[in-house]
Specification:
Structural class: alpha/beta
Order of helices and strands: HEEEEHEEEHHHEHEHEEHEHHHEEHH
Helix content: 25-40%
Strand content: 15-25%
Strand order of the largest sheet: 4-3-2-1-5-6-7
């Protein structure tokens, strides 16, 4: 057992102080069934057990172990090729991340406020942030009360924050990014997710991080700057301006835009593609640009029964817009996933595009790759069938 594994093991087996631990991520070149493993002490029939919660995409398997069996199972868990280890105790927080060469990077921080040990025997939700945990940025932003409970009128926001952080946590490429990790959040608004991203990258992953939030509203920018100053987060800055006009001497590794209206999402994607950012995350809002073209052009006769209904016409336009966006990202060397961001109970705008660039270096070509022939063919077929020109294609001067 390596030294970092012994550090994790000893912290978890310290019954007087251990609160909870999370193993996540996957070591480079390894395969693992589980997305995450959470451990915490629980009381079952009056005896202290160690609870193991294994998470994959579809289920959460919970097992409780006692005594030497718990030690054996912990040793087995430490042999799994997880990449990140986050341990919270009464006295400190330990964050361990493995580099590409599996060198452990260890950060230890004394706990300012001791965490309560919850021995209740129930299943924890698969979340990055937990209610009952002392999270300063949530308190400063008014999401969490002083007793570490989430305010009733901010529970939906707390769920949205966790949904976003889970998406970040599932992207293996992020932990391998060179430091400092640079991120730009376009259309950041009140910046709940911007602050959450900084907390995740800097405080949970232990990475040097530089984040810029960009928005057109001067009052929001001023408010966000004040919040960052209160937290002492000098590496989180905010600037007023338009997305497409934003310039930087150092291209960001991560580009984000969540619920940017209409073509603002396309502006974000174009910026990320031109910079060849490693990760681009966009949750589109409205889709007016393509909707107008669909109404002005003759529609395929096969879709007459669909397009005669305004609501179905609008939703089809939404789907086509995001399908074009995904195809264009693939043409430029990105691996793209279209996924649900958060339950539609919280917002009907719940689709998110997650794009991770493979095999390219910043500063090299921006034209479609010669190896992306299938993506080019799919885009061309879709464009010719509907006879429309997506705004993102106009921004990137795509002509096929």
């Amino acid at each position: 057992m390596s030294d970092y594994q012994k550090t994790v093991r000893n912290a978890i087996l310290d019954e007087a102080n251990f609160v909870r631990a999370t193993f996540s991520g996957r070591q480079r070149g390894q395969t693992i069934r589980w997305q995450k493993l959470e451990l915490r002490p629980v009381e079952v029939r009056g005896k202290r057990h160690l609870q193991f919660s294994f998470f994959d995409e579809k289920q959460n398997i919970v097992k409780n172990y006692l005594g030497e069996t718990a030690v054996t199972e912990l040793n087995n868990a430490l042999t799994l090729p997880f990449r990140n280890f986050h341990i919270i105790s009464q006295t400190e927080t330990i964050q361990i991340n493995l580099s590409k060469k599996r060198k452990p990077i260890i950060n230890r921080k004394a706990t300012e406020k001791p965490q309560a040990v919850d021995l209740a025997h129930d299943r924890r939700k698969n979340t990055i942030l937990s209610e009952g945990e002392d999270i300063p940025f949530l308190k400063v932003m008014g999401v969490m009360r002083g007793d570490d409970r989430i305010k009733a009128n901010h529970r939906a926001k707390f769920q949205q924050i966790n949904a976003f952080l889970k998406i970040l946590d599932e992207i293996d490429a992020i932990a391998a990014l060179p430091e400092p990790i640079r991120m730009i959040d376009f259309g950041c608004g009140s910046a709940y997710l911007t602050f959450a991203a900084y907390h995740y990258l800097h405080n949970i992953l232990g990475k040097q991080t530089r984040i810029v939030g960009v928005d057109g509203q001067e009052k929001l920018i001023a408010k966000n700057k004040k919040t960052a100053a209160v937290l002492g987060w000098d590496a989180l800055t905010f600037k007023q301006g338009m997305i497409i006009d934003y310039q930087t001497d150092t291209p960001p590794n991560i580009v984000v835009a969540l619920h940017a209206c209409d073509t603002a999402t396309d502006d974000t994607l174009a910026q990320g593609i031109r910079w060849q950012s490693k990760v681009i995350i966009a949750a589109p809002c409205c889709h007016h640009h393509l909707q107008v073209q669909l109404r002005e052009r003759p529609s395929p006769t096969e879709f007459t029964a669909v397009l005669r209904h305004n609501l179905l016409h609008e939703r089809l336009g939404d789907i086509l817009t995001d399908a074009f966006r995904a195809a264009i990202l693939r043409m430029h060397g990105y691996q793209v996933s279209a996924m649900e961001f958060i339950s539609p109970d919280h917002t009907p705008k719940n689709l998110l595009l997650r794009a991770v660039r493979k095999g390219y270096n910043v500063g090299v070509e921006t034209a479609p790759s010669a190896n992306s022939g299938q993506a080019v063919a799919e885009y061309a077929q879709l464009q010719q069938y509907w006879q429309v020109e997506p705004y993102l294609a106009q921004l990137l001067s795509i002509k096929l």
